[in-house]
Amino acid sequence: MKRILLTGAAGFIGRHCLPRLTAMGYEVHAADLAIPNENFKNINWHLVDLLNPDETSDLLARIQPSHLLHLAWYTAPGNYWASPENLHWVQASLDLIRAFHRHGGRRVVAAGTCAEYDWKYGYCSEEVTPRQPATLYGMCKNSLQNLIQAFAKETGINAAWGHVFFLYGPHEHPQRLIPSVICRLLRRETAPCTNGRQIRDFLYVEDVAAALVALLASDVSGPVNIASGQPVALKNIIKEIAIRLNGADLIRLGALTRSPEEPELLVADVRRLSWEVGWSPQYDLSQGLERTIKWWHEYLDREDQDQQSPIRG
Fold first, then answer.
1. What are the backbone dihedrals phi and psi of residue 140, each rounded to the nearest 5 degrees, phi first?
2. Does residue 104 sit within a domain?
3. Residue 144 is part of which domain span?
4. Is 111 helix (H, G, I), strand (E, B) or coil?
5. Strand residues in 79-173 grouped as ranges (E)
């Protein structure tokens, strides 16, 4: 049986990878700083701080995984773009990869970002578009990709890198665009937004997880875009949410000022993902939004019930 270590297993993407990995027959070892409340079956959980090299080394020595799916990183909304924590995660990731190789690891996939590309090109192809990150986050991810590829070449391990674009779905941080609009409309509050003319490439989080697992199971190496390949204006996403929640009167397009660094267009070339990995999305944008809205509706209902429940002593 193939044994895999999944880092960031309790995170936004990681939790959606778990059932797919077990369904494919992996012996799954999940590493994070916390264990989620969901009852994931056949998962070996490990509470570990990957920023501590001794804990990382001990974990890899115990597990000795054949496969590694590395998703853990610093992702605090609004802070991660420029946080020095990014530098710590480069070092922690290198410690992890070295320990993985030292204990017989063979195949690694790590999560990168579209922020590694030069955004002025708009259309991002792994083989054509320059990687010219404008943020510390993008620079650190890009540097790690280069280091992992060089390390793989020297050691013989098989390594791939997933450039993750824009994602949404259950368990996303509520300050992000899609959940913030959904939650405001569910509470019948106004939702201030930018003009929404930015064109982006969104992929439902369960599809993101499925694409990364498919990449892990393949023999494809090097960078692969993890995205839908479908351009969509943010205002169209916002309007569809409003229609589904009968909240068009609550949307305030243009109420927020766009950052001058934001590109007009950011869309992925997904031919490697489609042709070489052999993967395509299960959910289109409409289906993904429907599932996301349902999840947030149930989540807020549970929150309201918890607040209304009497305290029992």
1. -70, -40
2. yes
3. 3-234+240-306
4. strand
5. 107-113, 123-124, 158-164, 166-168
